[in-house]
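Today's session is about reading a structure prediction critically. Students often jump straight to the picture, but the first step is always the sequence itself: look for stretches that repeat, for charged clusters, for runs of hydrophobic residues. Only then move on to the predicted structure, which in these notes is written as discrete structure tokens rather than atom positions. Here is the chain we will use throughout the hour.
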Amino acid sequence: MDTPSRFEISRKTHTTHAMYMAHYHSYYELYYLRSGECHIFIQNNVYTITGGTIAFVPPNVLHKTTYVPNMNHERIYIEFTDNYMTELLALTGVEEVYGRLMNKILVLPPEERTAVEAYIQKIEEENMRGDRLSNSMKKLYFQQMLILLLRYQTDMEMMSGSGTAMADTIIQKATTYIAEHYNRSVSLAEVAAFLHLSPSHVSKKFKRLTGIGFKQYLTNTRITNAERLLLETDQSITEIALLCGFETSNYFGDVFRHVNRCSPT
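Below is the predicted structure for this chain, in token form.
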């Protein structure tokens, strides 16, 4: 089933600690932290970012933000589908746009920040205007902004790469280990031993940076992969349950219903 067309922009300010549940969706997300500081968890990485940073989240990728307390935070979301990049994708090719922007963290210098915020303001103004030409104008401004970011990311890759935020290496190794072993029994103790750390240290760090516990993250990883197999293959529910690390199809069905409010069938 094709993903419905979507282009939504929202701006929000936090003045206290805020934490959102890990989630994923069928459209892309451009997340721009205009001011403040937060931990952002995307798939197998956790980044600590500050104002002037953009994160691109592809469809169906687990992600989450946790805002640092005692600070003012302003963030802007743009949620969009492929049809809002039509001309750009035709011009540059899918691989270049996806490879240089999607699942990336871009730390913008002042000049690029000013330009990006100008495009965001124009998109917001067209949202308010809402006439028959506004949708085309929003698409035009959005693609111009992506071209600016694409050029910037290309320049950074040609230089030192200093325009990219660094991930937390411990959590990156832990989530990568889970991604590679979710199809069998995996315990916190096993991951901690792999990292040469105590289970309590890994558990606390995991919860603090991702906002969810180790067990919940493992379950989310298994369910996400099970959903993909249900949609893309003809394998039975029992086969998929076993491939994704569930001991029985009944237990898989219970967990699936709890997460998705529907049965695997």
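Discussion point for the tutorial: The longest strand covers residues 7-14.
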